[in-house]
Amino acid sequence: xxxxxxxxxxxQVPLFAGLAEDKLRxxxxxxxxxxxxxxxxxxxxxxxxxxxxxxxxxxxxxTSTQRDGSTREEGMADAGTLLSELAMISAVERKYTAxxxxxxxVIRINRPLFRRMLEEYPDVAVLVDARIRExxxxxxxxxxxxxxxxx
Length: 151
Hints:
By secondary structure, the chain is an alpha+beta fold. It is built from 4 helices and 10 strands, in the order H-H-E-E-E-E-E-E-E-E-E-E-H-H.
C-alpha cells in the first residue's frame, strides 16, 4: 500500500481521528507493515507488548485463556481496528491472543515512534490523553452495569 493509503487508514482509527495529516504522515512513515497468512498468530496472550497494531486489511480472532484452561473468544478485529493501544505508551502484557482468520496485514506502531509523536507534538498528547480517558470512562460505566448483575 502507498503512504497515502496508510495515512487514510490511520485517520479512521478512533484514537488518531482528528490528527493533522502531517502528523499521520510521520506516524505512517515510521511504522512497519507486516503480512500474515490465515492461521498465523500476530501475538500471544501474556507476552510483553512493545507496540500497537492497526489492522490494514483482513481479520483477527481474539481469544483469552480462562482460569480453567479453556479458551474464550473475545471478539474479532478487522480493518481499522487498533490492537494493544496502551503498549504504544507503556510496557504492558498482551491480554489476548490474535490469530489471522484470513490473509491479513497490519501496521505496527512501536512505542518509541509513538512516544516521539507525543513528546514532539503536545497537541497529539492532549488528544490521546482525552481519548484514553473517554475509553476508560466507558469501560468503567460498563463494569458498573455488570456489577449490578452480580450484587
